[in-house]
Write a structure and sequence with these properties.
Elements (H helix, E strand, L loop, with lengths): L1 E6 L10 H15 L7 H10 L2 H4 L8 E5 L4 E4 L5 H8 L10 E5 L23 E6 L4 H8 L15 E6 L6 E3 L2 E8 L5 E8 L2 E6 L9 H11 L4 E5 L4 H6 L8 H10 L4 E5 L7 H18 L6 E4 L5 E3 L7
Parallel strand pairs: 3-4, 4-5, 5-6, 10-11, 11-12, 12-13
Antiparallel strand pairs: 1-2, 1-14, 2-3, 7-8, 8-9, 9-10
Helix pairs in contact: 8-9
Length: 322
């Protein structure tokens, strides 16, 4: 199973500003002081040697993730990140009109749907886009994104074949070799997380969720949903203080993610849905604070914690019984 993040921002697409670029450039120039950059190969070697936060950008696209085993293509949400994913897919069977994309929606807020009108495979005859979600009126919601007042090409003019599957919370279903289970998360208008189980491996996508005074029953449900997963994608849009101040907006913090991940025996916690006002530097500072919190609260924990960067991929090999 390969997991790729094509958009990791929340709320609204966030292009890097000139000030952000210059701040990153200053760090790069500081690191380059005294380094021999006399040839292209040496420049490339220097770039690859830099810490990730200086070498890469967090990215400004909103929520979109891809889960694939080489045979089945599953997409989670259609934020602005789906545009780049669509371009990548057009180098595969989708260019010939022979592709099938399974598109799961956590919910239909703008930042999780605004990229779909720019998803090129949906315009190619022969391709199939299969929509899945728990919310009612899925087709009407998708059509509403592309009425002529807002977009020049109506939804049903897109030439791909389309189908809609209504899901039931906490009821597993199958796509290819993946067993997928949706569960309700606390978010305005309701959002749903998805757990993917595949050949002894598991990935949980739990964006857009607030964990405000959950009952014992809710705690138990979340722990069972997260339990033992290899990778947990967790909504950490806010600082811990902001999560208290901005109640009922449906987002959480990296520190809450650490609590759930350690207690649920997660191997890797990936924190995303980054606030659009936060620079890359601020996001890395939040990572450092979350790591300090983990070391203080759970010094024996082997949890790996990273912030989600656009383009990050994680590969999970099938578990082979000996």
């Amino acid at each position: 199973m390969k997991i790729t993040f094509w958009g990791t921002r929340g709320s609204i697409p966030t292009p890097m500003t000139t000030a952000d670029y210059q701040a990153k450039l200053k760090n790069v120039l500081r690191l380059a002081n005294g380094v021999d950059l006399g040839t292209p190969d040496k420049v490339d070697a220097f770039i690859h040697s830099m810490p990730k936060e200086h070498r890469n950008v967090v990215g400004g696209n909103t929520t979109c993730a891809e889960v694939s085993d080489g045979e089945t293509t599953i997409i989670i949400d259609a934020g602005s990140g789906i545009r780049a994913l669509g371009q990548k897919l057009m180098g595969e069977a989708f260019a010939l009109g022979q592709g099938v994309a399974h598109l799961l929606f956590t919910h239909h807020h703008h930042d999780h749907t605004n990229g779909f009108p720019f998803f090129i495979p949906a315009y190619t005859p022969g391709n199939a886009v299969k929509f899945y979600g728990i919310h009612g009126g899925m087709e009407e919601r998708m059509v509403g994104l592309q009425v002529r007042e807002y977009f020049p090409v109506p939804f049903h003019v897109m030439a791909s074949k389309k189908s809609f599957t209504q899901l039931t919370p906490d009821e597993p279903f199958q796509i290819g070799e993946f067993t997928i289970t949706p569960t309700l998360l606390n978010h305005p208008g309701d959002a749903y997380g998805y757990r993917f189980d595949w050949k002894g491996r598991s990935f949980v996508f739990a964006s857009d969720a607030e964990y405000k005074n959950p009952s014992e029953e809710e705690y138990e449900r979340y722990f069972n949903f997260f339990s033992g997963s290899d990778v947990l994608y967790f909504d950490g849009q806010y600082t811990l203080l902001e999560a208290f101040v901005k109640e009922d907006r449906g987002h959480s913090s990296a520190m809450v993610g650490v609590d759930f991940a350690v207690r649920s025996n997660i191997k890797r916690l990936v924190v995303g849905h980054h606030d659009p006002t936060y620079s890359d530097q601020t996001i890395m500072e939040l990572q450092a604070q979350a790591l300090e919190y983990k070391e203080f609260m759970y010094p024996d924990s082997k949890l790996v914690l990273t912030m989600a960067f656009e383009g990050d991929s994680y590969e999970l090999d099938a578990v082979v019984d000996v």
